[in-house]
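Q: Got a minute? One more chain.
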Amino acid sequence: MAVVVNPGFDRSGAGGWSPVDSINHQWLEINLGERTEVTGVATQGRYGSSDWVTHYLLMFSDTGHNWRQYRQEDSSGVFFGNTNADSVVSYKLQQPVFTQFLRLLPLLWNPNGRVGLRLEAYGCQYKSDVASFDRASYLLYKLDAVTSPSPKDLLTMNFKTVHNSGVLMHMEGNHGHNLSLELLKGKLFIHFRKASPVIHLLPVEVAAI
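A: Always. Here it is, folded:
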C-alpha cells in the first residue's frame, strides 16, 4: 500500500504517516516530481504517539515501477530507525541516489505501538549533460594539474548507440596515467595504462564487461 501525505505531516509537523494495518509489505512512497539527487534521509515517530519504525529499507525508482534497494557500503541495506516518537535519526547517504521516487518499507516497529513515522529527504535538483557523437568522436576528461580528485569521486554515464564499436571515454591523470572505456563488438573494455620513467605508457590490464 502506498500513500501520499500533505507537507503538513512532514518531519517538522504534527501527526505523521500510519497505515490502517500494521503489517509487513506496507510502504510510504514519495514522488519528488522530477529526477533529484537525494543525499540523506531523516525519520521520527508519529507525533504524540507510541508509533515508530525501528528498522526499514529504502528503495528508489525513476519510473515508479522498477525498484532498487539502496545499500550503504558497510551494511546489509537495513536502516536502523527510531526508539521513540520524538528523536530524529538522520542518515547521510554514502553515495547519493538519483531518482524521482523514494519508498520507505518498514520492517520492524515498536511492539507496543503501530507503524508510524515522519520522513524528510534531503537533496537537490539533478542536472545532467547530454551529448551526441559520431564514431570518430570521444569524451576527454583531463584532471586538474593542481588539485587531485578524492578517492570517492564518482563519474557516471548512460549511453545509447547504434554502433557496436568505438571509444566512449578517455581519461588522463596528472602523472601520465590514462584510462579508456571502449565498446568493441558489443562488449565494454576498460584499458588502463600506467606511465613509466622510460617508456611513456605501459599497458597494465584490460577488463571486459
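A: Residues 13 and 132 are 46 Å apart (CA to CA).
Q: Perfect, thanks.
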